[in-house]
Write a structure and sequence with these properties.
alpha/beta; Aspartate Aminotransferase, domain 1; four-stranded antiparallel beta sheet; about 40% helix; seven-stranded mixed beta sheet; about 400 residues; binds pyridoxal-5'-phosphate; Aspartate Aminotransferase, domain 2; 2 domains
Amino acid sequence: MADQMGDSADSLLIEAPSKLKLPLKVPQKTLCGPGPTNMHTRVRDALKLPLLGHMHKEFTEIMDEIQSGIRYIFQTQNQMTFAVSGTGHAGMECCLVNLLEPQDSVCVVNSGIWGERCADMVKRLQGVPHFISSGELGRGVSSDVVEKALIQWSPKVMYVAQGESSTGVMEDIKMIAAVADKYSCLVIVDTVASLGAVPLNMDEWKVDCVFTGSQKVLGSPPGTSLVSFSDKAVAKYKHRTTPVTSYLFDIANNAKYWNIEGYRPRGYHYTGAISSFYALREAIGVICEEGLLETQKRHQDAALYLHEKLRELNLELFVCEKSFRLPTVTTIRCPSAVNPVAVTNYLMDNFKLEISGGLGPTKGLVWRIGLMGPNATRDKVDFIVGCLSEALKALKTSHL
Ligand SMILES: Cc1ncc(COP(=O)(O)O)c(C=O)c1O
């Protein structure tokens, strides 16, 4: 020990980076891409609160409040409901790693990039993914297509993103879950880009597993995911013949930390992300204060208003059929005469406004405008459309 301390002597090989000696500054931007979105004031204030210990009574009470809030926003009474540390991908991985075993067949609804991402995870877990697709980018799947796939592949599990943020497609979860139920297939619904903006009645629709992220409609920083498993999903977990390959995401370990019936008393699993959980508690609190249905209505109203304003600018929506349009992320076909990247750069340089280009199959094809959390208002739409109109005018001369 003495020798080790002696080694730390008076000179270091690597110097402290000089920039890090100064406090951090970041610009204020309007985040209207597909997420993250700007934070609610209640959320921002919560991030300044003092730390508590991760097993302190005051903190575990906050965890209980988060849990009851998740049950409200997912509309479920599932016991196995909790938050995990990590972004939306963590939620996806938590659902898949607990429900899949090697060789399990999984049907993956593929309406953009997230189905591909899920299939990648399924393969890493030695499962066998089969894609279900409408065959047309910008269109959701029909009950016929889903039913055919379930008959062909007899999957144990199915994945579908309710809101495909890369294409702006919204899938009909009520219909998909009803078809899956007929074939005893568990359904995992990715609501990262949709929860809070459109209905998701987990129990009523018999959805087995739901996950979402904190940084979209919830208006909280990225870094926490919310998950819930139905009793049927937990039964599949309990009948596993192989161990869950992730210690962190194993639902039994999380259930212990979240004091879930059957796993009590509460015990340490990992150090809860204290400040992130404060933020999450406040983000869910904002929805409780406004009311879930009101929050959904506000998002849908803002999206419809945006669509109307975009039509006035002669811009074309990428998702043709209204029923498949996701209110949180609107995809706009980029007019061929304008350089799409020049437009997004112009908005950022002149207005500190973020709207995004396409992702995966929509790269170069669309712009994506996100209206989520505190940004889902008509005022924000007027601001975005005003800036966009100016950008298009300014860039027309140089790009047409
Ligand atoms: C539908 C969907 N699923 C999953 C993710 C992944 O979430 P994250 O980037 O927070 O890990 C996203 C992110 O945009 C998403 O839109």
